[in-house]
């Protein structure tokens, strides 16, 4: 029974959000009863857990497992647990600023869902680096000192004297928050975090620093290195894969063949679901080979593909298999829907929806930029631009924009988009087998860009991996998805084109643009 003596608790609900909870009948004996009281009083709908402030450990917070740890006038913190999203509606995750025409997204309707990696995988990241980095809530005593320090700073610009314990708490919480997005953050990321810290808590600015936070940036770098060492010693796969004992004998050097994200991959080297081993994952793969032969079995295939994501990804990174062999082992991956799903799991970002939405968003300004180009480049694009003006089909117009973009960047559209006449079937097949990477378009004899083609597909390393696609724009998006999923390099002859695909259309690593792409991006932004 709870004590009949009334009790009061200070309840921390979030940043700058503290309430008082009055318990007329005293602190309940049951933790479940206390949780119900907290949720009912403050209108909390999600699952929550409680932490209590322990005075014996310097007012640090610990998970509350029994109400006997609480006393009158004590402090508890509410932790709202975010549900793990196993199913993501692919239409809802598309950028809201643009709409995607139904022509190329009919196979990914609003009723379709993408199954992400298994919810039991603790290392799974669900989003890209945020535009505005969220500074977490620190321990209670640190927050109190920061609140007081910020008031002092606003009043007389006095900086806070940070104790070593307070500094350690701030750095630890920040590093944990950073790791939710990147295991190997770059210098620019540390700069963003340090600037966000002193913006939220100006009392932490450093006198003498050129930007007020250089010292914080350096401390974060060292702390992240120590944190990675700790996780590596605990067997975290995305870090332990780079330990010396995990490397081949010919690469036993600390800096040799480091496996880490190069193109903003969120889950570059994921962990197996809890309880799974390499043997159990191989069994799932074999079952998947059987499942793909059955009709109307999309749901089972999608579930098994999601569950084996980490196994498949580690195989790509460790063994670097050829496309033909990998297609034999994982045939289910080479479908439009599964490429979209794999990209979502790897990048925490929709593929076709984002690509096509951003292409449409920039199309009008791209056309202006392309048409403003003079000389031989303008002459090469004249026929394409005429077709763009004459047709209304969104798929053809997107194809014209892409061809014009490639030419504008000083590259050859024929290196990416290979067009063949249907009557030259055998010759076309022979040439396709010699290609490293391309989108192929088969047209009827005598027909051109204005007519719909007989077939659109993708070939990689001489292997036809997709066909019967709806448009060239969709094929370009899927080719980008396959490059990421298979960890392939961009074709050298099209490096600027794929840089635009990645950094402008997919909005990944926009802080690292080449001068040519940066110049194009600046021109596109002038009208927005």
Give a description of the structure.
It is globular, with a radius of gyration of 28 Å. The protein has about 525 residues and is an alpha+beta fold. The chain has a five-stranded mixed beta sheet with strand order 2-1-5-3-4, covered by helices on one side. Strands 8-9-10-11 form a four-stranded mixed beta sheet. Helices cover about 45% and strands about 10% of the residues. Helix 7 runs antiparallel to helix 8 (about 300-305). Residues about 85-105 and about 105-110 have low confidence and may be disordered.
List descriptors.
four-stranded mixed β-sheet; single chain; about 525 residues; alpha+beta; about 10% strand; globular; 19 helices
């Amino acid at each position: 029974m709870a004590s009949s003596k009334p009790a009061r608790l200070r309840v921390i609900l979030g940043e700058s959000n503290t309430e008082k909870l009055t318990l007329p009948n005293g602190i309940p004996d049951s933790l479940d009863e206390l949780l119900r009281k907290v949720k009912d009083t403050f209108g909390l709908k999600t699952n929550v857990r409680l932490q209590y402030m322990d005075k014996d450990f310097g007012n640090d917070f610990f998970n509350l497992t029994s109400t006997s740890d609480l006393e009158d006038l004590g402090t508890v913190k509410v932790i709202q647990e975010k549900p793990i999203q196993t199913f993501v509606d692919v239409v809802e995750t598309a950028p809201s600023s643009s709409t995607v025409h139904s022509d190329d997204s009919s196979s990914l309707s609003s009723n379709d869902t993408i199954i992400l990696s298994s919810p039991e995988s603790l290392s799974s990241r669900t989003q890209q680096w945020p535009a505005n980095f969220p500074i977490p809530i620190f321990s209670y005593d640190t927050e109190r000192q920061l609140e007081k320090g910020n008031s002092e700073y606003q009043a007389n610009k006095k900086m806070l004297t940070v104790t070593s314990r307070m500094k350690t708490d701030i750095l630890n919480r920040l590093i944990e928050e950073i790791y939710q997005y990147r295991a190997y953050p770059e210098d620019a990321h540390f700069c963003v975090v340090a600037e966000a810290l002193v913006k939220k808590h100006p009392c932490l600015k450093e006198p003498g620093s050129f930007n007020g936070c250089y010292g914080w940036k350096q401390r974060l770098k060292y702390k992240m290195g120590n944190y990675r060492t700790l996780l590596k010693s605990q067997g975290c796969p995305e870090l332990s894969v780079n330990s010396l004992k995990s490397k081949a004998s010919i690469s036993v050097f600390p800096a040799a063949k480091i496996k880490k994200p190069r193109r903003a991959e969120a889950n570059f080297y994921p962990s197996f679901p809890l309880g799974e081993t390499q043997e159990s994952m191989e069994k799932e793969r074999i079952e998947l080979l059987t499942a793909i032969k059955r009709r109307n079995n999309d749901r089972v295939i999608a579930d098994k593909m999601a569950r084996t994501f980490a196994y498949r990804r580690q195989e790509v990174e460790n063994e670097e298999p050829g496309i033909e062999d990998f297609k034999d082992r994982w045939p289910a991956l080479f479908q439009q829907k599964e490429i979209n799903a794999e990209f979502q799991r790897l990048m925490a970002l929709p593929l076709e929806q984002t690509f096509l939405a951003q292409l449409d968003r920039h199309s009008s300004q791209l056309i202006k930029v392309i048409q403003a180009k003079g000389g031989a480049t303008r002459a090469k694009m004249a026929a394409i631009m005429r077709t763009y003006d004459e047709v209304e089909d969104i798929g053809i117009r997107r194809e014209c924009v892409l061809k014009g973009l490639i030419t504008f960047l000083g590259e050859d559209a024929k290196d990416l988009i290979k067009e063949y006449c249907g009557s030259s079937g055998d010759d076309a097949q022979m040439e396709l087998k010699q290609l490293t990477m391309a989108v192929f378009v088969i047209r009827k004899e005598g027909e051109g860009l204005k007519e719909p083609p007989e077939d659109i597909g993708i070939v990689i390393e001489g292997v036809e991996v997709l066909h019967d696609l709806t448009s060239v724009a969709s094929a370009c998006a899927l080719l980008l998805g396959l490059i990421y999923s298979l960890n392939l390099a961009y074709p050298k002859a099209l490096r600027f084109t794929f840089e635009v695909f990645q950094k402008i259309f997919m909005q990944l690593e926009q802080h690292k643009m080449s001068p040519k792409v940066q110049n194009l991006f600046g021109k596109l932004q002038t009208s927005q």
